[in-house]
Amino acid sequence: MYSIYAKMWYKGVSFTSEQCALFYLVDTAGTRTTTDTFSDMSQDFSLSVFYSESRHGPACVQEATTALSAAQYWLTDEGVENWIINNVRVSQTPDGLVRIARNSNKYQLRTSPSNGTASLTTPFLHCTASLGQTSHLFVRRGERRMHYDGTSFIVRNAGHSAGFDDNNQLKVY
Q1: In the chain, which end has fewer C-beta atoms inside a 10 angstrom radius, N or C?
Q2: pTM (two decimals)
């Protein structure tokens, strides 16, 4: 299996793969080659993203303690555990489904170990992923979309679609 690289940005959706010498852009005019580049994502950058512009460390201990002491917890008759911490609701069902939501579900993260699915929804982005017989990764941001199902990769933007087929060949739809 080869790696595919893709990004959604103001110009459209750019993509390439390890096996492809060209970079493609799907924009409002259609599909074409481009000189776009991709950042090296092979190193772990999660901590710098997590801590960027966050309040953390000893100076925030009292604020965190206050938020935790104001947290609410309850268990429903169906066995669903619920927490509200600093206006973020976390719930977990007996089968392991976890939902995290903020601002009346405008921001929501769901994971389910029983069926191998995850989803993230915000006012700006919707993403789903699953394992198993219908494995896939889907990302939507406005008119831009990406979908990968383990064999083919397709991007869509402004009514235009292109991607790689199961032979890693460019296909324009």
Answers
A1: N
A2: 0.82
